[in-house]
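Hi there, hope your week has been kind to you so far. Thanks so much in advance, here it is.
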Amino acid sequence: MTTAAVSLDPQKPRAVHFAALMLGNVALALGPWSVRLADSGPVSAGFWRLALAVPLLVLLAWRSGQPLTGFSPKAWLAVAAAGALFAFDLASWHIGIETTRLGNATLFGNSGSLILMVWGVIAARRLPRALEVAAMAAALAGAAILLGRSMEVDATSLVGDLFCILAGFFYAFYILLLQDARGRFGGWALLVHASIAGAPVLLAIALLRGEPVWPHHWWPLLALALGSQVIGQGLLVYALKHFPPLVIGLALLTQPAVSVLAGWFAFGETVGWLDGAGMALVALALVMARKADAPLEDAVAPDDG
């Protein structure tokens, strides 16, 4: 998956910013494809996603002038705890990717925006606004359709959907934990430390699950680390500050569309009209959630992707 509304760049967005926004979403949407193709376990793939990306993230933080040391123990503890939650997020999401359709995995994996919106209403101790109620209703209706369709196809697909929804919860609390730390760490530095803290957690989970860790073929894992953790995240970190939440939410819709195409092309996954209706409702809910309240992850890192 942010801590406060993102301040917009004083200059109007240019074509290069829009291209970065769209390409970043496409790169993140292809992440589940790489997870499926990896011959390590799904959680092991998450470990390699973080571990392989750390050197490049350190370089990007250094080039951006973001310090990686000299922070208070409290800040370190918050980032370490957030990194562990990010690891649980990736573990849940990658397990879900293995058993449900890629389109479902991408939509439910991005549910952190909705969860943060609900959390904001609860924390403010106020009644939800009309747009927030509409977003919740659309999300519940769309999720009910998609979960029902998964149950019709295969019970394991339903379990995969639930793992992806659980990933959204982990991601939301990952973002909430970073609220205070973000003022001390830059965006790249946060990704560095979250990756360093999360990688051992993912490795431990993979070993406890008895997954193979060392792959025979490295290219899917390299594509995952570069595409999701560096290129996808990097392009969005560059582009997000130039756009309002509504535009970001609309651009987010490219992710499930690309994932559906990837699932059809690579794995023969098909989407009927009822599946499409469920996806449309969840996607609409994500856009409304972005419009209702600029989500915290815009300022830290995009959703799982």
The chain has one domain: 15-299.
